[in-house]
Amino acid sequence: MSNASRVVLVTGGSKGIGRTMAEAFRDAGYRVAATYRSGGVPDGVLGVACDITDQGQVDHAFDTVEAELGPVEILVANAGVTKDTLLMRMSDDDWQQVIDTNLTGTFRVVRRASRPMMRGRFGRVILISSVVGLLGSAGQLNYAASKSALIGMARSLTRELGSRNVTANVIAPGFIATDMTAVLDEATIADYTRRIPAGRLGAVDDVAAAALYLASDAAGYVSGAVLPVDGGLGMGH
């Protein structure tokens, strides 16, 4: 099937990496929908308001995409949040909000997408993790735990759904230049740049290119993999 026949859903597609991935799939000829909680989505992308911590909203979002475009064949689970603070200051709420969105929310969208993929005997599940899930990061215990758990999720999905031509893979971006990183001070950015073998921050387009590959027919025999997009920052993990 051509790209134009495939339906893609990107969660958290209003800004940053998610928005760029939605644009990249759109420009490659896919039929693309994206969820958002605030703001909007790129032109040519079906926008669906959805908080992935609410199963009812997840079901409504999928129902809308299925009615407008057809069953979701490629799911890019990108939506996530941070609530950074050191362990001794981290509240139960700081922990729970991050886990509810990054891990449980991802579980909800993957579960809703999986049955139509199995029926159609085709599916691509792409989970957006982070180099932090592999390396750890002081002040991000909750975030690191939620992102590392996505690797176990993808590999278990591969064992459950692989015989139905459904793949499940993880992208682990490193330090990517976005609006969130633009507000950091120069010393912090310089420190990260020093630690990255590539000698520069990544671009959102770097992550989008990885997602396009994992969604393609060329990656049909790639499943349960972790694809780092980090300039070498997380090598060996």
TrEMBL record:
Signal peptide: none annotated. GO terms for molecular function: oxidoreductase activity, acting on the CH-OH group of donors, NAD or NADP as acceptor; quinone binding. One of its GO terms (biological process) is fatty acid biosynthetic process. Residues 6-179 form the Ketoreductase domain. Keywords: Membrane, Oxidoreductase, Transmembrane, Transmembrane helix. SMART domains: PKS_KR (SM00822). The chain crosses the membrane at residues 122-143. The keyword Transmembrane applies. NCBIfam families: PRK12826.1-2 (NF009466). PANTHER family: 3-OXOACYL-[ACYL-CARRIER-PROTEIN] REDUCTASE, SHORT-CHAIN DEHYDROGENASES/REDUCTASES FAMILY MEMBER. Belongs to the short-chain dehydrogenases/reductases (SDR) family. This is 3-oxoacyl-ACP reductase FabG. It comes from Tessaracoccus defluvii. The lineage of its organism: Bacteria, Bacillati, Actinomycetota, Actinomycetes, Propionibacteriales. The gene is fabG.
